[in-house]
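ARCHIVE RECORD
Type: protein–small molecule complex
Small molecule: magnesium ion
Source of inputs: curated submission
Record status: active
Notes field left blank by submitter.
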Amino acid sequence: MRFAKIPDDFFPWLKYDGSLRQIGIIQLKLVLMREKIFIHTGQFCAAANEAPSGREDKPMKEPVVKIENISFKYDEQEGYALKDLSLQVYDGEWLAIVGHNGSGKSTLAKLMNGLQYPLEGTIEICGIRLNKETVWETRKLVGMVFQSPDNQFVGTTVQDDVAFGLENNGVPRGEMVKRVIASLEKVHMEKFLDQEPHHLSGGQKQRVAIAGVLALQPKIIILDEATSMLDPRGREEVLETIRELKGTNQLTVISITHDLEEAAKADRIIVMNRGRLYKEGTPEEIFQMDEELVELGLDIPFSVKISKKLREKGIPLDKFYLSEEELVAQLWTSHSSK
Amino acid sequence: MMGKFIIGRYVPADSLLHRMDPRSKLILIFLFVCIVFVANNPVTYGILLLYTFVMAFLSKVPLRFILGGLKPVLWLIVFTFILHLFLTKDGALLFEWGWFEVYEGGVRQGTFISLRFFLLILMTSLLTLTTTPIEITDGLEVLLGPLKKINFPVHELALMMSISLRFIPTLMQETDKIMKAQTARGVDFSSGPLKTRIQAIIPLLVPLFISSFKRAEELAVAMEARGYRGGEGRTKYRQLKWTGLDTVMMLAFVVVTVTLFILRT
Ligand SMILES: Nc1ncnc2c1ncn2[C@@H]1O[C@H](COP(=O)(O)OP(=O)(O)O)[C@@H](O)[C@H]1O
Ligand SMILES: [Mg+2]
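STRUCTURE (tokenized, with ligand):
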């Protein structure tokens, strides 16, 4: 037995919150794989999620993804696809990433999943520094759903597709069967076990893709425009599923989207522009930008536009309303109270 | 046009043959192909014919449906028969007509060869009629497993096969969609001289190819994102189950084989 040289960043959690207190909870499993050491980290992330009791601020503020000054360029491209980008994603939040076509959103998602590696800067997932050695571990923590419902469906039937990721990770069959059923139940597709993909709607296929991700029990799910090829019903179906999951599973959701109405429902929005992080804030803060967003190639939601116009006309609205329901509710209550 | 053709088609049903393990079916077919050449007289051919029809009966696929579907191949069989009838000049002369001479050996040879051909096609059709392509793939993957030792990419081939199977209907739907789109633009696929019809296929194939490449690329990324890293260390979800039925079928086959060896001349 031979041990690979241990790299400097091998114990990334040591700088995690500065204390060694957590290490007691951490079950460290060293797994020897192809003569290199991998760290089995499932336990660590779960432990890291329990908010440290000493802290005063929101328990949400635990970064599960920590990106520092990354830059990335595709070989065949002139300019950088991502330039000097830093970003933190907190445990349990719903983060929306918006930006014009080609602003680098998908590239960022790929980097978080180790499908590409940054030229400069570092990425940490649940305290594990992402690199070629740890990628198989971090990939289990970060699930990804892509845009095209068809081109990510690998199996010949629904259950085969959900099992694909489990097979890849060498999960024993008995466990696989349980997880496949359980994940399909979570996305309400358990009645379609033996259905073939060409008999499913786009929304159903995306829900199966989500089940495939859930089966691997990730901490983070990245949706890269996962609803953009769906009709309105399919889109609502998928978003509803994600909302449900987020509530019950302590899932952190990173949703890359063109749809600002969808982004309006997120906890936080990040605006990308030409490979850089342009702005970061709550939906309200972001939609204050207004014309600036249009210049960045985005379109503000209808309800925000209306509330702005109404305010210009002298209707007393205290803020820009991000959803039509909210706006309508505000309008008829303020009217009736007069 | 292709509606009735059954080679390579699967007919869902709940029959003994459907319930067999694809591995045992594949092994049986392979052995059957070998023992067909053992038969060399009417009795042994009779036994093989009987065995094949019993199998067809057990598949619960109507015999008329099977034979109807084999019609295009039946012509080939008839052709084989006629060829041997005229070319083999063996044994007693049965009759002559002008310069056509038919010998006893010709009839015999013609019957046997075309019968052999017929039996082989019928049996392989029974395999595909009662086994889904994905089951066949799984079966082959296991049976060819030992070839991994000599670095034959068994897992990769099986995966390629299963992905192709998964995408065939999708590509068919897409072809249909492109065809409609092009028809709406005035492309006529169904009439005119052959040359223009072949030209009409180009605006169909080009988008299909482009989209297939895009699909392949996206699929590869999606597979990697889900942890795919080759066959090593992978477990399997779909399971093959060897049951008593498979053992019985194998034993029956052994009995047939032994009988053939005893009765051949
Ligand atoms: N596979 C690739 N090879 C080369 N360049 C790429 C590739 N994917 C994306 N790019 C380029 O990188 C930039 C960012 O693209 P992308 O991350 O896909 O943006 P977005 O998802 O925001 O639309 C674009 O200029 C795009 O042309
Ligand atoms: Mg994109």
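CURATOR ANNOTATION: Chain B touches chain A through 28 residues (CB under 8 Å).
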